Amino acid sequence: MSPLIETIGVGKSYGGVVALRDVSMVVEPGEVTCVLGDNGAGKSTLIKILAGVHRHDTGELRVGGEAVRFASPREALDRGIATVYQDLAVVPLMSVWRNFVLGAEPTRGIGPIRLLDRARALRTTRNALSDMGIELDDLEQPVGTLSGGQRQCVAVARAVHYGAKVLILDEPTAALGVKQAGVVLRYVVQARDRGLGVILITHNPHHAYPVGDRFVLLERGTVTGSYRKSEIDVNELTRQMAGGAELEALQHELQRVVRP
C-alpha cells in the first residue's frame, strides 16, 4: 500500500531565496510524523506545499501514490488533507457549534428555499466532540472564550468528523501550558489510532517524542535527520534539534572564557 503522503526531493524557492531543498518524507496511516525545526527551518513552507497553498518547484509530491501539484487548498482538502494552523481559522465571536459546521452547514426546507438546521448542527457537533472524548458544557458559547487547548481539540475533532485522511497540525502546543499541551497531544494520539496520518509540526522535541512514530529534522530548508522512534531517543533528538555540535563548541568556548 502506498503512503498517504510522500515527498521526494521537494524544493521551493521565493525569488533568490531557497526555502526548501531536497526534502523527502513519508506519512503512513495510523502514524504521527513529527517535523521539527526552529524558526526559519522551512516548516511553514512545507506545510503550505502539502496544504495546497503553494506549489513546489522541484521534486515530487505524491498522495496515495499519485503525483500531484495542488492548485488550491480546496484541492488538498478534497484529497483528505486537513490543516489546523497555529492561529486557528475560527470566528471568535461565533458559537462553538457554528464554527464546527462552518462551510458544511446542514439545511432543511423544500426545493430552493433552505434554512440552517440548527438542531441538527448542534447534534452533529455534540456527537462529534463526544466521539473524541471532548466534553463542553455550552456549545452556544463563543469559540473565542475557550482555552487554547480546547480550541485546538475542537479543530482536530472537526477535521476527523469531516473525513480527513491526513491531519496537519501547525505548532498546536506552542502557546499552551503543560496541562493544555497534554490534552492536545492526547487527541493527536486519538486521531492516529483512528487510522489517520498525522503530521505534527513543532519546535519542541519533548512534545513530539511521546506521540511521534517518525521524526524529520529540518534546518535552513534541508533535512538534517530522519528517524523512526526505535532509532533515536528523546535526548539525542533534543541534542540534534538544538544543534548539538554547535552547542558543544559554544560550551567549550564559554568554559575557556570563565576559567580564571
UniProtKB/TrEMBL annotation:
Give the Gene Ontology MF terms in alphabetical order: ATP binding; ATP hydrolysis activity
The record's annotation in InterPro entries points to: AAA+_ATPase (IPR003593), ABC_carbohydrate_import_ATPase (IPR050107), ABC_transporter-like_ATP-bd (IPR003439), ABC_transporter-like_CS (IPR017871), P-loop_NTPase (IPR027417)
Q: Tell me which residues make up the ABC transporter domain.
A: 5-245
Enumerate the UniProt keywords alphabetically. Answer: ATP-binding, Nucleotide-binding
SMART domains reported for this sequence:
AAA
- From the Swiss-Prot or TrEMBL record, give the protein name: Fructose import ATP-binding protein FrcA
